[in-house]
Amino acid sequence: MSAAHRVLVVGAGGLGSPLLRLLAVAGGSRVEHITIIDDDLVEESNLHRQTLYSSEDVGRSKIERAAGTLRDLSPGLSVRTVQGRFVPDTAMELLSDHTLVVEGADNLATKFLVADAAHLAGVPAVQAGAIRWAGWALCALPDSACLRCLFEDIPRDRIETCAEAGVVGPVVGVLGGLEAALVVRVLRGERPGGELWHYDALAGALRKTLVRRRSDCPLCAGEIQDLRVERYTAACAA
Ligand SMILES: [Zn+2]
User: Which domain holds residue 178?
Assistant: First the structure.
């Protein structure tokens, strides 16, 4: 793995902020290019956890502000921005020329879509989620356990998103950093596939467990062969 790497980052919010900063300056792992996709504007109420932005950025496009900061941090870095959501129609095309995808979306539908698209494309996926004072990060390699080995499917009843329930800044700071560490390890040729990191800020506990591939996982067992839209609409956060 000595080639230069192209990384797709889905979400430039609370998790994406520390993650993007760290990847931009991760010289030893040869990140040559970062594509950022997000559809949001910077909001005052999110500044406490979206540490890539300042009060001057309020009302402006997150990806444009993020790209500007990354180019300042690392002038040689190639950065592409995609204004929009990560959706089934364009997921495979976006993934196609990237070494790895890392996700910090604020809703479960996007998390499952990233997991499915990465698996179908044979690309490693680093994913994370956080709510209130706790969260998790998972590394899925094409031959390791995936998000669906862990959670199976989007819950059919309505669930809270972090935008509704709130998440504290230090939690996404830690988890975005853990995601960056997993990305760097994969790019350096290590195999952290199936590693699940769980962080509970109130309990002061960071724990690593190894998730094993489930024989009845619909994604790993090959039942899921396409990205049909219905799969990702059930709990899509409004
Ligand atoms: Zn699986």
Answer: 5-232
- Tell me, what CATH number does 96's domain have? 3.40.50.720
The span from the CA of 175 to the CA of 102, in Å, is 12
What are the tokens at 153? 């499917």
Q: Which residues surround ligand 1, an ion (CB under 5 A)?
A: 146, 148-149, 217, 219-220
Give 18 or 157, the one with higher predicted confidence. 18
CA–centroid distance, residue 155 to ligand 1 (Å): 16
| Centroid of ligand 1 to alpha carbon of 92 (angstroms) | 18
Q: What angle, 0 to 180 degrees and rounded to 10, lies between the N-to-C axes of helices 169-187 and 16-24?
A: 40
* Total number of domains in the chain: 1
C-alpha closest to that of 112 among 191, 219, 223, 199: 219
pLDDT tens readout for residues 73-118: 999 999 999 999 999 999 999 999 999 999 999 899 999 999 999 9
How many Å lie between the centroid of ligand 1 and the Cα of residue 103? 17
Q: Is the pLDDT of residue 152 over 80?
A: no
Please give the positions annotated as active site.
162
pLDDT number for residue 164 = 67
Q: What's the CA gap between 116 and 125, in Å, rounded? A: 10
Residue 238 lies in a domain: no
